[in-house]
C-alpha cells in the first residue's frame, strides 16, 4: 500500500510506446499518440490526488523533429486540439514548458505560452511539458548563458558552481526529480534531464504509455518507497538523520 508520507515530490516521465501500442492493434501510429494524450490527462489527475507537486512529461524531443512530417504534424496538432485549460483549471495545476521554443510552429508556441500565463496562479501541482527538448540542448543553452555573463563581467569563472549551472537551466524553476518513470519497455534515458536525474530513482515498465493508469502509477510510487535515498551517505547516516 502506498505510504502517504513518502510520496515523491517530483516525478518525471518518459512517455514511450504510443506508436507500438497502435501498430500492435492494427492502427496507424498517430492513433497511439491520441490515446497517449488521454493517458497524460489521467496521470496528471492521479498525481494531483497523490500529492505530487511537480510532474515533468517528455512530450517531444529535439530528435523527434526527424520523424516523418505527417507524424510531427499530428503531434503538434495534438497540442492545439487536446491541450485544453479544462484539465489544468479543474485540478488547479500550473503548466510550464521547457525546450527550444524557437523551433515550434507559431500557433503551437502561442498556445503553450497562453496556457502558461493562464495557469500561472495555480499552485496544487506544476506540470512541465518538455517539448522540442533534449538535455544536451538544455545544458548547451545554459553554458551559453553563463559564458555570456562571464564575458560581460557579471560572473567570475572561478565562482561558477553546480548551483550556477542548475540556475541557468530551462527547468531551474523546479527541484530535481525524485522518481523517473519510463514506459514502453525501453531501458534508456534518451537525452532527458541528464543533469537533474543524478540522484533520481529509476522505474522502467513494459507497459505502453496509453495503458499507463493509476494502478501502474501506484506500482511506480511503491517501488520508489522501497528505496533509501542516500545521496552518497551511508545507510547508517541516513537512518540516524531520520531518527534525530
Question: What's the arrangement of secondary structure elements?
Answer:
Layout: E1 10-14, H1 18-23, H2 29-50, E2 54-61, H3 69-82, H4 85-91, E3 93-98, H5 106-118, E4 125-133, H6 135-151, H7 162-167, E5 179-182, E6 201-204, H8 214-225, H9 235-243
Parallel strand pairs: 1-2, 1-5, 2-4, 3-4, 5-6
Structure overview:
- The protein has helices spanning 18-23, 29-50, 69-82, 85-91, 106-118, 135-151, 162-167, 214-225, 235-243, and strands at 10-14, 54-61, 93-98, 125-133, 179-182, 201-204.
- It is an alpha/beta fold.
- It has a 6-stranded parallel beta sheet with strand order 3-4-2-1-5-6, with helices on both faces.
- Helix 2 runs parallel beside helix 3 and helix 3 packs parallel to helix 5 (106-118).
- The longest helix is centred in the first third of the chain and has 22 residues, at 29-50.
- It starts with 9 loop residues before the first strand and ends with a helix.
